[in-house]
TrEMBL record:
Protein name: Glycosyltransferase 2-like domain-containing protein
Family classification: Belongs to the glycosyltransferase 2 family.
Keywords: Glycosyltransferase, Transferase
Keyword hit for Transferase: yes
Residues covered by the Glycosyltransferase 2-like domain: 6-166
Keyword Acetylation: no
Matches recorded under PANTHER family: GLYCOSYLTRANSFERASE, GLYCOSYLTRANSFERASE EPSE-RELATED
A GO term, aspect molecular function: glycosyltransferase activity
Length: 307
């Protein structure tokens, strides 16, 4: 009997985080799913972890293949999926227990929507929560931002989509490697509506070994080509000069660290405000903001400021 939902999980050298991701899926209140884990030529223990998980849970199917990158892994998993609805998940993230149930119920009741994301909480390499990340629910606002190059309008590992809609537009495209989410959403927005649930149903890991820090070569040029195509398909003019190249980073900036120090206060013991404050001070000891952040944390500790 076919499952109601397929979960698509690409895996590449994720042994450090994979057990927690798998545990969060086992803990889901929605259980009528298959998990398609695509090992993309991992050189660590990822495949062994997946094999043990599959032995223990018949819902898990493992595809092992040479490394091609995220697009090839996603398309292989999409081809293997048997359910009409597909949820994305990354091997280093953690799903809240009712994530699948809430997204599946929404899509079942709203056939005009083809793709559904959620708000998320950012977390770090040690799973400390850093910052809430709300997302817009308005399709038109989402599409406008996508046309400006903001693929983060839907957090890719949080999405759930209709498989036939993604197949209709040709799946993921190799020409969009490392910005495959932006490309997918722009094409999906032409065949249906996009939205986000306001609840934060995923803990989304951000760390300095992730793709956003390590896979930036040629990304801006690919983005401009994809945006030009998306504008042309809608009969809209496109000026590439209006999309300046971002300042790609190989590590968190001192401003990032100060930001996480303050926002992680809201998570109590689950955050690491002091850790990020000290990192900011070491990175920029003569800058004012790290010292202001330290002052803020001291006042918070003394009860002079409340989050």
């Amino acid at each position: 009997m076919k499952p109601s939902l397929s979960i698509l999980l690409p895996v590449y050298n994720a042994a450090r985080y994979l057990p927690a991701a798998l545990a969060s899926l086992r803990a889901q209140t929605f259980t009528d799913y298959e998990l398609i884990a695509v090992d993309d030529g991992s050189a660590d223990r990822s495949l062994a972890i997946l094999a043990r998980a599959a032995d223990a849970d018949p819902r898990i199917r493992v595809i092992s293949r040479p490394n091609t990158g995220i697009v090839g892994a996603l398309n292989d998993g999409l081809e293997a999926a048997r359910a009409p609805v597909v949820a994305r998940m990354d091997a280093d993230d953690i799903a809240i227990p009712d994530r699948l149930a809430r997204q599946f119920a929404f899509l079942r009741l709203t056939p005009e929507f083809v793709c559904l994301g959620t708000a998320v909480h950012f977390m770090d390499a040690r799973s400390a929560l850093l910052k809430p990340c709300p997302r817009s629910a308005d399709h038109d606002a989402i599409e406008r931002a996508l046309l400006l190059g903001d693929g983060g309008q839907l957090i890719h590992p949080s999405i759930m989509f209709r498989r036939d809609a993604v197949l209709q537009i040709g799946g993921y495209r190799l020409a969009a490697q490392w910005i495959e989410d932006l490309d997918l959403y722009l094409r999906l927005a032409r065949v249906g509506r996009l939205t986000n649930l306001p609840a934060a149903l995923l803990h989304y890991r951000i760390h300095e070994q992730s793709v956003n820090f390590t896979r930036n070569t040629g990304r801006h040029e690919r983005k401009l080509r994809i945006l030009a195509e998306a504008h042309a398909a809608r009969g809209l003019p496109f000026d590439p000069a209006a999309i300046p190249p971002p300042a790609y980073k190989s590590a968190f900036s001192p401003d990032d660290l100060c930001d996480y120090a303050i926002t992680s206060l809201g998570y109590g013991r689950r955050g690491r405000p002091w850790h990020y404050t000290w990192r900011a001070l070491r990175a920029a000891p003569r800058a004012r903001r790290p010292w202001r952040t330290l002052s803020y944390l001291l006042k918070h500790r003394l009860g002079l400021i409340r989050t």
